[in-house]
Amino acid sequence: MSRKSKPIYKRILLKLSGEALMGEQDYGIDPATITRIAGEVNDVHKLGVEVAIVVGGGNIFRGLALSAKGLDRASADYMGMLATVLNAIALQDALESQNAFTRVMSAIEMHEVAEPFIRRRAIRHLEKGRLVIFAAGTGNPFFTTDTAAALRALEIKADAILKATQVDGIYTADPVKDPTATMFETLTYLEVIQRDLQVMDTSAISLCRDQCLPIHVFNLNTPGNIVRVVCGQRVGTLVRPEARVKSKRQSGA
Question: What share of the chain is helix, strand, coil (3-state, %, to 5)?
Fold first, then answer.
């Protein structure tokens, strides 16, 4: 990244899946991976960007999958929320080992390990230069951590959501299954819903659409991508109101 690069956003919400913390493992948290992610988050923060994070829990517990096998859906969702708290604490430790100041705020009260989520307090933490990690989703069953990310981003008045994934962006089809799939550079919220692209659930996309909150979808496994997105470089796919459908193949890339 050029030294002249400057952030185009003052405050962002980074959405991390639980699976992003696994690395090459099949389960749990890979120390090397979470340390690398913490380093990239710190690089963004050092640019003067206020960073909030919502982390999922799929590396520890998949509530929806167990619900499909007979477990009560509400119970499964609450168990999944608790898994996100474990990930939030692990991420906090990784960040603080790199001299960052952090706060974990949970939608389910557990005072010994996290602060309760209070919107004004969260904003004040960000203003004071602290990294804020939101855990336990929305605190309600039947809502995903994608919806929690959209809700928290709007509550703290974030300038954008950065959705970190395992692929380069949003594709016309699953690039693993379809080698002819092409990646979109831009999309509108409505196009994401109509094409059933499933990058985020419909509730999350609708929330962002109502408030015109841009969503950047990019590959977390490419070093430096978080900084590139924050500094306005063309990385991944941007979902926004003004966007026109345009794939790399169509643009001649």
Answer: 40, 20, 45
Give just the sign of the alpha carbon dihedral 50, 115, 213, 236. positive
pLDDT of residue 64: 65
pLDDT of residue 147: 97
Burial (CB count within 10 angstroms: exposed 0-12, middle 13-18, buried 19+), residue 151:
buried
Q: Which CATH superfamily is domain 11-251 in?
A: Acetylglutamate kinase-like (3.40.1160.10)
> What's the one-letter identity of residue 202?
T
pLDDT single digits (tens) 71-126: 899 999 999 999 999 999 999 999 999 999 999 999 999 999 999 999 999 999 99
* Domain locations along the chain: 11-251
Length of the chain in residues, anyone? 253
